[in-house]
Amino acid sequence: MLTDEVGKGATSASRPAYSADNPLRSGGSLIQLITPRGERISHPEFDVWVKDVSDEQLGSLYEDMTVIRRIDAEATALQRQGELALWPPLLGQEASQIGSSRALREDDFVFPSYRESGVAYVRGAELAEIAKVWRGNASYGWDPQRIKLATPQIIIGSQSLHATGYAMGIQHDGADSVVMAYFGDGATSEGDVSEAMVFAASFQAPVVFFCQNNHWAISEPVRLQSHVQIADRPNGFGIPSMRVDGNDVLAVLAATRVALDRARKGGGPTFIEAVTYRMGPHTTADDPTRYRDPNELEDWAAKDPIARLKALLDSKGLLTEQLEAKVQAKADAVAAEFRAGCIDMPDPAPLDVFNHVYSTPNSWIERQKDHYSRYLESFSGSAEEGAL
After folding, report:
1. pTM for the complete prediction?
2. Which whole-number Å values give the CA distances from 313 to 68, 305, 352, 354, in the listed order?
3. Which of 9, 76, 84, 299 has the fewest beta carbons closer than 10 A?
């Protein structure tokens, strides 16, 4: 896992400036650098943004994608075994999450939805912290300031407003860090996302709206909610957009770097539509076989993001037994640590539910806490110890 930029040695000075009127970068054409069969294809406009990615770094991208798929599988198993209350799978979206998050700087701030466990891994969240919310032990998992990652947002699209506000604060402070807001295709039909784009465009805030178009908003297909490409929607707000193959980790990395560089230079917001696919259910409470054609799943399985990077590594002679063993060992170790951290997680004290509801003391909350404490004590146990 790397939390800084892939190939930091390259500078933006050697890269072409972003041009909002370039049709390749205003929706439309799909940006792709690796085909589903693992063939590296040339795209002069974007090749320059990943020319610093070494063979070793390709291997590390492969490792990260493999590891987060293993975390996802382990979390799904833990939910089925009753150890997690719920889990939102990311199966199939590994390239979108790893490619975009590996482009970020340490001081950039991220506002995720509930599915970005891969982003949390890259940003440095401890494995037990990723599981905490889904086990029901806390309303948040990690300290947002420590890893510059806000807590997962369940309310669809609301994090886009938080991201824009934070970006406006960065702008006010005169810093060159950037904010990234993650959401799915369904969120683009929410008013919060539209309002966020209005403010971001009006104030030219340094924010990147990263939409993982996984083709399904729970049980509704993307074609039902949008009769145009998702990347066309932000153009009406005056925000340039890019449409990238979300199963191509190099293309995602390149597009994200373009957007981040543009924001750092005062160019304002950019919208990225990463065209990917949700291979699993919306959450572990969902049954996609009730609404999804199995042939569609089969078609997208042929575009698997990990398989295509693996094929590229193999074609370059980089898929050695040593690399495979290293990646497998890392995935096994992470899965074991994730499982242990989940199962061994201590239960919170009953009164912890009142913590962090407000940032300052609140009499209404304190009154509820007092009433609940006395209720627990009526069972002749300690409220803090949780004895009932």
Report:
1. 0.90
2. 19, 13, 48, 50
3. 9
